[in-house]
Amino acid sequence: MQAFTVHKGIVAPLDRSNVDTDAIIPKQYLKSVKRTGFGPNAFDDWRYLDPGEPGMDGSQRRPNPDFVLNQAPFDQATILLARKNFGCGSSREHAVWALTDFGFRAVIAPSFADIFFSNSCKNGLLPVVLAEDEVQNLFEQVEANPGAQVEVNLEEMTVTAPDGTVFGFTLDEDRRHRLLNGLDDIALTLQFADDIRAFEERQRREWPWMAL
Amino acid sequence: MAGKTLYDKLWEAHVVREEPDGSTLLYIDRHLVHEVTSPQAFEGLRLAGRKPWRGDSVLAVPDHNVPTADRDKGIADPVSRTQVETLESNVTSLGLKFFPMADVRQGIVHVIGPEQGATLPGMTVVCGDSHTSTHGALGALAFGIGTSEVEHVLATQCLWQKKTKAMQIRVEGELRPGVTAKDVVLAIIGRIGTAGGTGYAIEFAGSAIRSLSIEGRMSVCNMSIEAGARAGMVAVDEKTIEYVRNKPQAPTGEMFERAAEHWRTLVSDPDAEFDAVVEMDAAEIAPQVSWGTSPEMVAPIDGRVPDPAAESDPVRAEGMQRALEYMDLKANTPMTEIRPDKVFIGSCTNSRIEDLRAAAEVVKGRKKADNIKLAMVVPGSGLVKQQAEQEGLDRIFLDAGFEWREPGCSMCLAMNADRLEPGERCASTSNRNFEGRQGQGGRTHLVSPSLAAAAAVAGHFIEPSALKEA
């Protein structure tokens, strides 16, 4: 996983609540058996005026000029700003892969859906929870000054707005550590293989029907 | 000290290791796998030279991409076909249990888990699918995971989790005639919102929940995720134990009785404390119809489409306005005046035998209305289909002009050929009414099987009891 320490970039304001993972990456693209290549179809239904299917040449499609990620400088954004309950719905990790493949490194919102939050942390895409008024403040600054840069610092757990205001956020220590160091979860877990085996032996003794 | 919640008990029974910050290595008993969220996980395993930790914990089945018609012709869409074939080659090369498309036991992963006894009370159950919460109806801790976690469970049989807060949603009293499990859960989501359960594991309790069949409880737990909660569950009672008895993978004989004795302890203690409690009066719940693009946007069948102008929160009002535009609905329209173009009865929420019986009861002796271009019934599994056919339900649907299909996820998310065309409106027994969910530009109204059936017959939403005599 790509480590996340400090990132500074352009913020795209996506002024919607309950952005669901079906919207982030529509179902037809889930048929891929790969982890990459989802970026061109991130927010496909909102981003293009014509219906999309896997394998289409994006340059031949009609982009929706009203959609924020089709507008300069937001097409270069690396931080996404949205309203509450971002990433709700399906567990598809493809939604996170689509955002990272587009170039996003962080998403800032007042709240996230649980599975999206977890998937996000496992792919080096930092979900940042700020208070609703702080998010509102960022929306106003970014809309007044498109292209202004925001810094997200996971070491300090701060977001620095274009006007220099600093907002603090929190992330549990375990996730923060893994993100800061870009750690491979499975290798870490396998250090505890003996604990897992001991658990299995106990379970087989007490509740043998669990592993039928 | 307060007693334990069901969630406490299920959690504590699966802790392999706990770190000082509360991060817990949690053991997973059952790993359900489907074709959409697993290929990258199997590839990761292969690239790292790893093997599944406990292959016998896996049950794999293709469900999202499978066609529901002309199965003998295989899968027409080459991309879908590749995904299903990739699952087959991944699981067969590792010797994992698998029900291919031609197997009568094939079906929607959340229908076949309980049907096979692969998911049992007291288990931890995961799947790369957010509707895994369904299995909580058996008194299990079941939740959806992403693909990285699928790979992690394959490799280690465990997941790193932090214990969430516990919410009890208590529905007390008697449900009105015609009000189903689906209406209960839609009313709950309408009440607490799609983020109301975020950060919680929900236990559904109260006399109205206890009165539901196990299949009804599955419909309720299924939509926990639409209320924001990864896991939903119902305490074990004698109905649970009788449901599990004689299922193919359940224990038998003396071992079953021993297991049942343990399962009876899987209830929240009377003095257990929850972090949040929501109380609802069953008698106040009416049949529900969703009007918007989020599952919290629901109204009673005798109600009207709400007016964004009456909403005080501006962000919320804008969301409502956007939803009404997408749905092509006007504020204050009576729900009974909304006319669908298509009707879909199926999905992991409502495709079990009881759902099909409820729909068939409404349809029996009646005909599909002329304005309904397509009414389709998609059983949740090959075994559900077989059972329905033995009961003659297929004839009832076919005689009424419905289509009777093969099992799969189908038009719940339209990854196969079953989908809405832009602008089409659907009465659907599925779980999500998001923009484009059932096909780009499609408009979804979430309802119970009996309401979907009634809409197919009348051509507009209506309470089944208000239909003219058959």
Tell me the Rg of chain A in angstroms: 19 Å
Give the N-terminus to C-terminus distance of chain A in angstroms.
35 Å
Average pLDDT confidence of chain A is 96
Helicity range of chain A: 25-40%
Broad shape of chain B: globular
Structural class of chain B comes to alpha/beta
Radius of gyration of chain B, in angstroms, nearest whole number? 21 Å
Instruction: Note poorly predicted spans of chain A.
Output: none
Largest sheet of chain A, in brief, is: 7 strands, mixed
Largest interface: A-B, 59 and 81 residues
Query: Strands across the major sheet of chain B, in which order?
Result: 5-4-3-6-7
Task: Compute the number of helices of chain B.
Answer: 15
Q: In whole angstroms, how far apart are the ends of chain B?
A: 59 Å
Explain how this protein is built:
The complex is a heterodimer of chains A (212) and B (470). Helices cover 32% and strands 15% of the residues of chain A. Chain A has 212 residues and is an alpha/beta fold. Chain A has a 7-stranded mixed β-sheet with strand order 4-3-2-1-5-6-7. In chain A, helix 4 links the parallel strand 3 (106-109) and strand 4. The longest helix of chain A has 14 residues, at 193-206. Chain A is globular. By secondary structure, chain B is α/β, with parallel strands linked by helices. Chain B has 15 helices and 19 strands. In chain B, the strands form 5 sheets. A 5-stranded parallel β-sheet of chain B has the order 5-4-3-6-7, with helices on both faces. In chain B, a hairpin with a 7-residue loop joins strand 13 and strand 14. In chain B, helix 2 (39-47) crosses helix 5 and helix 6 (181-192) packs parallel to helix 8 (214-222). Chain B is globular. Chains A and B meet through helix 4, helix 7 and helix 8 of A and helix 2, helix 3, helix 5, helix 10 and helix 11 of B.
